[in-house]
Amino acid sequence: MEWDKDLFHYIWIWAPNCGQDGYPWYGRNYTLALEPWSTIYSNLEKVIDNNQGIRIQPGETIRTQLKAFAIDFSEK
């Protein structure tokens, strides 16, 4: 993946494999996600207390790009 590291300082990797018991997955999900984040914290209060995160003013627009690609290393 490529992303704006000045805007998103961290990348979160999460995989709740079969961890969603309720609708719509009922424990049948196999998921891996890579998610650019602007802060290490997931709790908004901690983000504010540590003066992190992205501040977007009313009417303001922030644009960025993200590139994702996959490589097949399987033998043919």
Written overview of the protein:
The chain is mainly beta. It has one domain (1-76). 8% of the residues lie in helices and 18% in strands. It is built from 1 helix and 4 strands, in the order βββαβ. The chain is extended and about 45 Å long.
Strand order of the largest sheet: 1-4
Element order: H for helix, E for strand: EEEHE
DSSP helix count?
A: 1
Compute the average pLDDT.
89
Structural class: mainly beta
Question: Shape, please?
Answer: extended
SSE topology:
Elements lengths: L1 E2 L6 E5 L18 E5 L6 H6 L16 E2 L9
Antiparallel strand pairs: 1-4, 2-3
Key phrases:
two-stranded antiparallel ribbon; 1 helix; mainly beta; 76 residues; single chain; extended
What's this entry about, in short?
With 76 residues, the chain is mainly beta. It has one helix at 44-49, and strands spanning 2-3, 10-14, 33-37, 66-67. It is extended.
